[in-house]
């Protein structure tokens, strides 16, 4: 009977620990703005909470790096487009020597 009580208590403790770990994962996922489901599956598959939290931090850091890289690329693209527009405007102005203000006719 004592053995049965011990088994029941150990199962109860394991279930409580699982619930606490699941809650910790959900809170960390919310803080990191990550979906919690895949990390909870890792917990169900037997990974330790420490390993899962490390994985979440790595994923968050990778996501931040991707966002920063995307912003850099978008900024560079905008700068290139601005340079192209300025160059085209400069070339257009250089090619047009004079024009008739009334008709818009280009006079060469």
Automatic annotation (TrEMBL):
What is the protein name stated in its UniProt record? DUF1351 domain-containing protein
The organism named in the record is Streptococcus pneumoniae
User: One Pfam annotation, family name?
Assistant: DUF1351
Would you say which domain of life the source belongs to?
A: Bacteria
Asked if Coiled coil is a keyword of the record, the answer is yes
Q: Which residues form a coiled coil?
A: 55-95
Keywords of the record: Coiled coil
């Amino acid at each position: 009977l004592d053995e049965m009580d011990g088994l029941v208590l150990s199962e109860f403790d394991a279930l409580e620990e699982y619930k606490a770990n699941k809650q910790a994962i959900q809170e960390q996922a919310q803080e990191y703005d990550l979906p919690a489901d895949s990390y909870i599956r890792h917990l169900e598959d037997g990974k330790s909470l420490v390993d899962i939290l490390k994985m979440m931090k790595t994923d968050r850091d990778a996501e931040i790096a991707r966002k920063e890289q995307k912003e850099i690329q978008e900024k560079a693209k905008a700068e290139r487009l601005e340079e192209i527009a300025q160059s085209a405007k400069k070339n257009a102005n250089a090619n047009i020597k004079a024009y008739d203000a009334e008709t818009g006719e280009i006079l060469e």
